[in-house]
Each structure stands twice: as C-alpha cells, then as structure tokens.
Amino acid sequence: MGEAPAFFADSLLGDFPNGVDLKSEGHKTAICIGSKIYVIGGADHESTAVIGVQIFEKSSGEWINPTVLGTKPKVSNGHSAVLLNGDRILVIKGNSKSDGCFWFLEVGTPFIREQEKTHGNEVVAWSKGVLGNVEKPIVISGPSGVGKGTLISELMKEFPSMFGFSVSHTTRAPREKEQNGFHYHFSDRSVMEREIKDGKFLEFASVHGNLYGTSVEAVEVVADAGKRCILDIDVQGARSVRASSLDAIFIFISPPSFEELEKRLRARATETEEQIQKRLRNARAELEQGKSSGLFDHILVNDDLESCYENLKNILGLTEGVKTAHKTYPELVDLPVEHLVSKIDQKILINCGAGEYQKASDNMYVICLIHFLLCTQSILEFWHLIPLVQVCSGLVFAQRRGPRTDTRTKSICHQSFH
Ligand SMILES: Nc1ncnc2c1ncn2[C@@H]1O[C@H](COP(=O)(O)OP(=O)(O)OP(=O)(O)O)[C@@H](O)[C@H]1O
Ligand SMILES: Nc1nc2c(ncn2[C@@H]2O[C@H](COP(=O)(O)O)[C@@H](O)[C@H]2O)c(=O)[nH]1
After folding, report:
1. What ipTM was estimated for this complex?
2. Domain spans of the chain, in order of start
3. What dihedral angle (degrees, nearest 10) is formed by the CA atoms of 147, 254, 413, 377?
4. Annotation says 268 is catalytic
C-alpha cells in the first residue's frame, strides 16, 4: 500500500469532476470509477522518469500501488485525463507533439481482470496512441520450429495490452503444457469439419496431418478487447487470409539454415521422430513458397533471436526513433499544457484556447477514437472523414499503434535463407 497526505485523500472523498487537475498535488489528475479513484501523475513508485499511477480505494481509504504493465509514458509537466467507456482512460500529455502525447491507461477491461488473477494485485496497463494509423492484424508464418511462437511470446510480454493472440482450433493432441482455450481450442475432427462447413472459420488448412483453423470469433475476441490481433498460421492459411477481407500485414519467418531448423525442432522435443520428419519435409515446401510467392510483405531471418525480435519491432513501428511509413493524418501540432478536454460519443474535443488574433475554433482539435475494425479500408476511411467535416483542424486517432505499410512492399531483414 502506498502513502499519501491525509488532506489529499480527504479531497478525493468529496465530489469532483472526472479528470480534475489536482494542481496543488503537482498536476495529478483523478478519475473515479466505482469505488476506485485512479490518480495519474507524479513519479512512478519504481522510476521517477515515468508517469505514476496510484489507486485510492474510497471504501477503505487505502492507497494501492498497482502492477503497471506496458510501456509507460515519460513524465511531463502536465496532462489531462478523460474516461472512455468506463474501463480505459485517455491521457493527453501537454507540451508535447501530437504524435507522442496520447496514451491509454487500461483499468477495468477483461484483459486487466485476467491479469489481476495472475498477479494477485490491482493491474493497469499503458499503451501509446498513434495518429492516423489503422492497426492491421499481423499474420506470422514460417516452417515449424523456426521460432514464430517464441517471437510472438516476446511481443506479448513486452506489449501486453497492445497485442492479442488469435487462438486457433486444431485437431492435433495437446502437448504437455498446452491449455485448451489458451494455446489452441483443441477439437475433434468431426466437430471441426462441421464447423468449417458452417462457415465458422476465416481460414483453415491441413497441416502436418492435422486440421488447423482461425475462427472468425478468435479474431473478433481480440478486436473487441481493443487489441491488435496476431495470427500464427501456416503458409496455406496466410494465402487464404490474403484472399479474405481481413487487411493484414504478412510476415514470413525463415531459419538461418535448414540444419538449424532441424536442430531447433529436435531440441524442442515436442514431436515424435516421424512427426519431425514430416514437419521437415513440409518445411522445404513452405520455405520455397515463403520466398517466391509475393504473398509476404516482410521476410525475417530468425538467426539471432534478439536481433530478429528487434527487426520485427521495427516492422511494426515499435522501436523508438523508427518512423512509421505513410502517416497520412494529420500535420503535427504542439499541445500546450493548459488545454480543456471533453468527450462526445467517440470523439474527444481538445480546446487549446485562442491566441490574441485567433478565433476560439482555431485551436480546437477533434480526435476520433477508432478501434481496430474487422472491415475493409473504405469503411475506415469513412470513419476518418465524418469528424473532419465539422472541425477546423482534424486530428484523427487510432487506438494502439501499428505502421501503415504498403501492402506487398517486400522488405527482407537480415540475410535471406541459404
Ligand atoms: N533464434 C533462435 N535461436 C535458437 N533457438 C531458437 C530461436 N528462436 C526460437 N528458438 C527455439 O526453437 C524452438 C522452436 O521455436 P518455436 O516453438 O517458437 O517455433 P514455431 O515456429 O512456433 O514452431 P511451430 O510452428 O511448430 O509451432 C524453441 O525451442 C525455441 O526456444
Ligand atoms: N492455417 C493455419 N495454420 C495454423 C493455425 N494454427 C497454427 N497453425 C500452424 O500449424 C503449424 C503447426 O503448429 P503446432 O502448434 O502444431 O506446432 C505451425 O506452422 C502453425 O503456424 C491456424 O489456425 N491455421
């Protein structure tokens, strides 16, 4: 439990407007959700370089230091906060460029509740907002044993509130530590065949003698959680997704050599010798298709795990200093520390105040909150355009980050497979 001055706690027990700026406390903001008050600002209890979060429990009068997941925003000399949908807080840092000032603090979503079970403590999660980018799902393919799952785990560990894994269905038997509903939905062949006929799957394929498939629901569950979806599927599945309406980024993971692939598959010790032979035979075909089909936007060679992971983050625009491609919206603006924020439906109005020779509207911005949608680009453009009609200067905002890449622009990081 944390400590706070008694007069501060007393002021939180009274009525106050959500998002109130507690200037006397060093520009902390307070957001009340049920019996909890989230106080944002000041230094984090672990590092003075990042914005801190504390929870004041009104019923007991206690302060809680939550487990804070995700990349935390650096401290600033002022911010505003507005509650979205009861379980997410939008934090707007003042005195910073508009591409670095929008942050989400997730506080009561299903993801957070799940994490609280694991941590046995209150949990909150930060994620950075990005202007004008639509987050496409990420399809990761490559031969068995190349390290797809390892790379995806790294990504989920570093950005827990940003990405969600699409849990596939399979008819293969579970491995020792695999959990139904988490690693896969393990299914009987007859049941899965019927569900395929019923149109339940976005894609499916027979892989190494078993059926594997991505249900539409698996992708929707991730989208509903406001996260960017990651699919770990084979090349046949990637081709089907490419042909579907799901607009995704396609990444092929290649091994440094065939010998290394075999070594990894054997060292994992999850397959019988017969299965290993089958997977290696299929790997040759997958490597050919991965290199030649023009299906993949990016090919990454997973030689050294750390550098491959860095390359993956570069592609996804997650490395500091990397510019994401094709940012079409809008020009960057400097948001002052003093600004007023209000929320109307899915739009956030930011009033930065008028200068001496300006109209009030000259310094008004509108953010349209766009969640990742399982739909075509044109519908997203439509969403973009609606708020721009009525405002003087358009700031369009997509929750969570992700580069807008040219589809089929091929980048090959590291050396190609030999
Ligand atoms: N760069 C690397 N260097 C050495 N070992 C690695 C590297 N990347 C992953 N591994 C190891 O290789 C093995 C296979 O990795 P992983 O299970 O992630 O492969 P995969 O592509 O997901 O396989 P599958 O398609 O069968 O699920 C694991 O034991 C993992 O620890
Ligand atoms: N087409 C699909 N392929 C999938 C799906 N889920 C996993 N996979 C691929 O299967 C192999 C083997 O996986 P393993 O867990 O048995 O080692 C691997 O290449 C996966 O990418 C899916 O839903 N559709």
Report:
1. 0.99
2. 28-128, 138-316, 344-371
3. -80
4. yes
